[in-house]
Amino acid sequence: MDHKITALKLQKRNLQRVNVYLDGEFAFGLSRIVAAWLAVDQQISDEKIALLQAQDVFEIAYEQALNFLNYRQRSQAEVRKNLQAHQVPDQVIASVLERLEVNGLVNDQSFAQIWVENRIEFRPRSKKALVRELRQRGLDDEIIDQAVEQVDEDQQAYQAAVKYLRKLNTDEWQEFRQRLTNYLLRRGFNFDVIKPAVHKVWEEKQTTNPDIKD
User: Fold this and answer.
1) Backbone torsions φ then ψ of 25, nearest 5 degrees
2) pLDDT tens string for the chain (214 positions)?
């Protein structure tokens, strides 16, 4: 059955959406990008209406995904979870993820690499901790393994210890060792890696402040 478009009006509360009137009555709303090819007096079939409404659902979901990605890069699983929370159908989510990937806005390999590089620079931690974080974000094991392959555990433990050093306002070796060891344990490092890192930082601390006590 065909219908005649009798009016197209921007919504007062959302200028990015258009109210479509068919045969003199309000019928449905569409995003401006979907409604762009419609015109007053145009004849439109039920099949075309269904297609437009499906496209509108997609555009709303895509815009939601872009807003979610605006804060930082996300994994596919994170985007999927966010869209599911907004009641987006799985089929639409799959289409949104496909477009995001084509446009270079979602890439799990890139996400994992950036995540690891960021941690190395600003918040050093063990491979085990990095693997756990990336798994929590829904990444495949193969991608995770590639991302953490080049992580130097000894260097990361040392860097983490150096960053924490400013909080260790003690010159007593036993307290220093205990507090720094506990901190590195929370970062996922094991004792074989922690012990040399703690000793190295302690020796450097002695060099800069020879009055501290063993």
Assistant:
1) -130, 150
2) 899 999 999 999 898 899 999 999 999 999 999 999 899 999 999 999 999 999 999 999 999 999 999 988 999 999 999 999 999 999 999 999 999 999 999 999 999 999 999 999 999 999 999 999 999 999 999 999 999 998 999 999 999 999 998 888 888 999 999 999 999 999 999 999 999 999 999 998 887 764 545 4
Name 198's Cβ contacts closer than 8 Å, sequence gap at least 6.
Answer: 161, 176, 177, 180, 181, 184
Match domain 2-102 to its CATH number in 3.40.190.10, 1.10.10.10, 3.40.50.620, 3.30.365.10.
1.10.10.10
Distance from C-alpha of 114 to C-alpha of 72, rounded to nearest angstrom? 11
How far apart CA 10 and CA 158 sit, in angstroms, is 60
- pTM attached to this predicted model: 0.80
CATH classification code of 107-151: 1.10.10
> Residue 92 corresponds to which tokens in the numbers above?
């639409």
